[in-house]
Amino acid sequence: MTVPTIKYFDTNSILIEALASRIIAALELGIKENGSASLVVSGGSTPKTLFALLSTQDIDWSKVSITLADERCVPQADEACNARLLRENLLQNKASAANFIPLYEDEQSPEEAADDSSNKVAAIKTYDALILGMGQDGHTASLFPEAVNLKDALADNADNCIAIEPVTNPVTRITQSKQKLLQSKFIVFHLVGKDKIDILNEVMNDINKTQFPSAHFIHQNDVPVDIYFAQCKD
Q: Residue 203: enclosing H or E segment and its boundaries?
């Protein structure tokens, strides 16, 4: 089983410089080899500064498709909407030319959104880069440990996207399944803050993948995984 590489940084500012370079290199390679490239990102406050930096990078964004690892089933204007986060932070400046693939549209039922987004992301056979986060409960994307249908989302034959009830959170989500997210050329976990050290250590020790959904991405042999960790936010 592949052992992930952990890259330590003093601050998130230093981390995002290195991570942005890695992402841009992957996208440029995808464009060079295939004429287009794809990037999957996660929501939350952690990647905001990374998104802002990426948005200014000088590549042919018109040939890049961007989508989300997961989304809340809330209106596009809602502050909790990951698509809004991307539009305000990543799909700006030069990156405004990118093709954005949302996982949820206003007025859709979760089931309709899951079917629709499954079809949309199916057009991308392999993601050039996948950026994930990790919650204090060991979840990643919207693969929550307590979710009733977590087993379905982790199944090797799962649909590309799943409507999922976190249980520990009141909002229904659309999440890309494990099998679809693992169709990536490389995976990076972007973690910031000393409070993430304990959960990271627990996930690293969950070799049998019995406790934490994020362990299914850390402990696998199909896709290279790096963990970018900064102790301080600034």
A: helix 197-205
